[in-house]
Amino acid sequence: MTITETIFNFVVSLASQLGYPGIFVLMVMESATLPVPSEVVLPIGGYLVYKGVLDFWTVVAVATLGSLVGTMIDYSIGFYLGRPAVLRYGRIVRFSQERLETSEKWFGQHGKSVVLLARFVPLLRTLIAFPAGIVRMDWKRFLAYSAVGILVWDIALVYLGEVAGQNSSQISSVLEAYFLPLGVAALVIVAIMAYRSLRSRDRGSGNG
Known about the structure:
Layout: H1 3-31, H2 38-50, H3 56-93, H4 97-110, H5 114-117, H6 124-127, H7 129-134, H8 139-166, H9 171-207
Helix pairs in contact: 1-2, 1-3, 1-9, 2-3, 2-8, 3-8
């Protein structure tokens, strides 16, 4: 068994223990722009569907609900607190001003329909909630557009995981090419965030 398969089996075991509540929390975090990639979480959920541990439509429903809660958090920050607060939040969760400006540019070029379209574009799919809130887009329309895009995205990724389970002979190569690099990237991001947080705390103590 390769290290990739070992990591994958550990993640699958953990996900099966966490179940639907775990998927919900992870998707809230992902849509609130924290470094939790749905491209990893949902295919694992789909794999557990293949194994008979979880139900396909329940996974989709829980993931979609979690994503909507998370995206409404970002929308509310933009709506009630404005762009300066979004940038401060960005420093906490480590997304740059340039990424925010990219999402604002998309929103300005394509209008409110970009809330739906951006759900299929990496990075923009979560950040688009901020400019929607900043320009005070009607929350019901924002929620409706988001729900459609998120639902399609979640169905596709859960189905991808289920199909991968059915073709288990191909899983190892897929993991080597996709899941392991993403997992390593996530660990690096978490380590950097922890390091910067400790440095900021040390500086604060020094100033005190």
